[in-house]
Every structure is written in structure tokens, then in C-alpha cells.
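#struct-pred

JT: dropping the chains for the assembly here, can someone run the whole complex?
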Amino acid sequence: MEFFIQILIAAVAMGTPLLFATLGGVISERAGVINLGMEGLMLVGALVAFVVMLYTGNYFYAVAAAAFASGIVSMIHGVVCLMLRASQIASGLALTFFGTGLSGLFGDKLMGETVEPLSRIPIPGLHTIPVLGPVLFNQDVIVYFSYLCVALSWWLLFKTRIGLNIRSIGEAPEVCDSLGLSVLSYRFFAVVGGGMLIGIGGAYFPLALTPFWVDGITAGRGWIAVALVIFAFWDPLKALGGAYLFGLALALELRLQILGIDMSPYFLKMLPYVLTILVLTLVTIRNNRRGIQVMPAALGKVFFRGEKH
Amino acid sequence: MRKLISIIISTTLTMLLVGGSAWAAKPSVGFIYVGPVGDGGWTHAHDLGRKALEEAGHKTYFVESVPEGSSEGQILKIARKSDIIFTTSFGFMDPTLKVSKKFPDKVFLHCSGFKQSKNMGNYFGRMYQAKYLAAIIAGGMSKKGRIGIVGSQPIPEIIRHINAITLGAQQSNPNIEVEVLWINSWFDPAKESDAAQALIDNGADVIVTMADSPATVQTSKKNGVYAIGNDTDMAIYGKEAHLTAAVWNWDVYYLAAVKAVENGTWKSSADWWGLDSGIVGLTSFHPDVPQSLIVQMNREKGRILSGTMDVFDHGFTKRDGTRVTKALNDGEMLGMMYYVKGIISKIPSG
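RK: done, full complex below.
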């Protein structure tokens, strides 16, 4: 039982950076903008969080600075693919290269520095619940903040006028434009807001998981998040389940070995991606039968104001 | 037009990361790295060797984080501007061989592989000797009698190191148990840390890592257990935990190899340098390590240095109980795909 709980605790820890990045991706893509720059944005967030933590020793400043910095860098994506109307795919990929290079360049002098990792704070009352207590309510503040972000982004997208506008713009920007909504401003803020969440996902590495800086500290988690956005069907609540499921896959890869269960490492490594393809295929087949379209209809498409298509 | 601008922006950003400049009189040297130079481990160790060449007056180039699967283009690019090219990961072997045929007047040296041509050689160090010595310390420092190893990729090189660690630890604690967890990656700090945690949760009190980042040292510090560093000195990441590290001193080899090419004495060969050359070694010890343990380690070190003993030359028992009585030759060591007795984990079937 103890072993089982430890697996779940590890799954939440591994899933948390994925969760933030996926939420960021969901918000951006709900407005119709693909962001393939997640890995780069996470690295920028991780670096800035580490530097601020090193010099101020304040977790709040570190997280805020990571969000701010990633927000600024995602503005590049906003400007290039919204205002200059370039390909979102190319711009996103460039952002990944840029973020990776930038963090490597400025991180060069930080080798050997370490910070104190976040400690766990049990929530009174809740942390004594069997299984769920130690897994979900005996975590660090960033994990608690991630629960809040899931709830807030779900509420924002599905329960507010702003959310309705964002989703509509992701579906039919021309219609929204004719109704007087500023497609570009909404999209720009969705990209920047999403970028800030992605940056916090990166910040979780040096603040909690691995409290030092090495180049490429996120080791490709940004790409898993790209797949997770699709896996979660652009829904913050499903993002929560998806991120923890992927976190569980990462944690299981190690724990299955302890149990002596012999599974091909290649199989375990491809599991998250196979799951994504499988779920996507199954749900798409089901939705097509029922005539439901889940993917934002205008996702990835360049918006030309007042022009015919 | 706007598309064009965005393409220009994207390419410029990419170019910025690659960089490069003019030629020099001494032979110029190019490096292909599998990880980032700031990984604090394997690639960092190679890059220290590159910096030693720079200090010796050579113009050097490098590309970092080159994926093993698609490295040919990068090797080609580096080969165009360098006289000597070092490719520093096993997976670069075939692409290096291919590119070496296009530049017959340049010298290619591939780390950790076995394929050669007229202008391509191999080089490596007998890291297993340093791991064996470090493990004597690890075995002696484990109170629970259990060492946890964070494995990277399950290839013969790493399996050889794990076996050497087990045999070394048995020198100071004959009943030591060794548990291995594979992360199936060379570099993934979060996973390395999680693996160390899982091993500690399962009873290990000395953690040895085969992966490239210092994450395990840090996790060991957090849990109040000891750790052995990998490839570079990782003490700065947790001196409370860091017993010692088995490290690479690539400058020893790089300076010698480049000198040989410069003097025209270089011939294609497979160099596997040992502890005596200085290419591998240990860093300074944790203050907790008792003098008696260091003396014991030094005795074994002396035997390896004098050539009277090597790790796999005096018989051992495999995990399945079969006994190996004769000394292994280099080929057998390079193809090692079994565990020795004392390792409680099963070898992955992959």
C-alpha cells in the first residue's frame, strides 16, 4: 500500500509541470493558436525561476518572474503569427529553439548553484483522507496552485463571457469579427496568458523537482504537453486527468522495475504517445458519429480581417 | 511576404544557436556532443577537454545536443571547417564513418564505438576501473548494505560499469546488495531524481548514477544518504552526500591525439586508455570516509596501476550462478550483457 501511494505521489510530482503547460496550451489553442514553443517557454520559465530564487530566496517572486518572462517570450509568438500572420507551426518551433538557446546561454554561469526545494505542506483535515490525502493534499504550494489554475481556467473558458468569446474566436473568427470582437487582441492575450502558465510549468523543475540548473532541464516535457493538449480535448479538467496519467506513466516506468516486472523500456517510453493517438482516434470516431467537433475549428488557421476565404 | 519574414526570423534564430567563425594555423578541431555542454556530466566533461585544446592554441568548434538518430548533417557541417573531428557518443558511430569517407584528408575520432577506417579511429577510457574503485568507498559507506544504481541506457558499456561497481563494493562489503533502475535516457533530471528517490524508498543508502545530470546527488542529499557522482565532480550539487565521483579527464587524450595528428604520427586505431593514463580518475573524498577505506581502495588502485590486476581478469560469478574463471578480453568486456552476482535486479530484456 505504501509503495502504491509512493507511485501516485511521484505521478503527481511528474504530472504537475505537464499540467501547467497543458493548461497554457489549452487556453492558447481554444483561441485558435497552436503553440509548439512549449519546450522553449518551459526552459525560459525554469531558468528565470531558478535565478530569481537564487537571488531572492522567495518562491512567490520566482514563480511570478517565470510567468512574466515566459509571457514576454510568448509575445514573440503572438506578434509573428498574429500580427505578421506567419505560420504558427514555424513560429512555435522557432520559439522552442530560441528558448532552448536563450536558457542555455544565460544558464552557463549557473552551474553548481543550488536552491532549497519547496517543502510539502499538508492541508489540515484533508491530508488524513486515505490514499487521496497523502497523494493530493500533502504537496507543495505550486501543486495546490495548479489545482486552482485548473478550476480557474475551466471557469474562465466555460462560465464567463470572456471564455465564450475566446472559444468562439477559436471556432469562427470571421463571425466574431463581424460581431465586433477583436480577434487579434483576444488571441494575443490567450497566447501570452497561456505562455505564462507554461512558464510556471517550467519553474516547477528548479523549484521542486531538481533544485539546480542544468541545460535542457525539462528534458522534452514541453513536447509531451503538446500531445497532452490534444489528449485532453482542449478541456482544463481533462488536462488534469491527462497530466497525472502521463505522470503515472513516467513514475511507473521506474516502479515496475522495482516490482521485477519485465517490460520493454521502448514500450513504456512510447506509451504516452500511443495513448494520445489511441484516445484521439477513438474519441474522434465517436464524435464523428454523433456529429460533434471537439478541436477548435479555426485552430492553426491564419485570420485575415475583412477578407474573403 | 510576411511568411518570408517569419522564415527569415526563424532561420536567423536557429543560426544564432549554431555559430561559427574563421580558420586558424594549428589544426582546427570540431566536436559533436550528444547533450548540452551545461549538462554537468558527460558532455560537460568532453567540453572541458575541448577548452584545454583552445588553451593550447587550437581553433575549436562544437555542436551540442545533437540527436543520435539524425547526426549526419551536423557532423558534415563540422567536418567542413575542422581538420580533426571528435564525435562523442556511441550513436554517432555509423554517421561518422559515412562522413569520414567524404573527407579522406581529415581525421575522425569516435568515442566509445568499434568501427574504424583509414581516417577514422576509436577512443575510450577504462571507466570501469574508476567505477570499481569508487564502489569500494560506496560499499564501505553503506550501513544498510544496499547500493542503488540509476542506470541510463541498458547497453554493454553501462552494464559493464554496473558490474564493476558491484564487484568493487563487494571488496569492502561482501554481502552488498545492488539494485538497478533504468531511466532509459542519458539525460532527464526529473526522472533521475525520481529514480534515486524510488531506490532510497526501497532501502538503498548509497546512490550511484550512470546518468548525466547531478539530480541524484541532490536527491541523496535531501534524503540524508550518500551518492557517487558520474563523469564530472558533482560535489557542488550536494557536498553532504557526495562521497567521490568517477570522472573523465578527456584533455589527457584530446591533447595527445591532436598532437599526433599535428606531427603526422597519427594512425587509425582503437584506443582504450586505462587508469594509468589519467583519462579516468576519482575526485576528492567526503570527510566521513574513514582512512582505512581509503587505504583499502588505494591498495586496489595500486594493483590496477601496476598491471597486476584488472576488474574482470580474476574470475567472478554471474547473477545466474555460472562461474567465469578466465580473464575477459577487451571484446568480451565491450559486449557485456549480463549482470554479476550481487545485483538483485533482473537485466532488462528490451
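JT: nice. Chain A is about 70% helix and 0% strand. Chain A has a mean pLDDT of 91.
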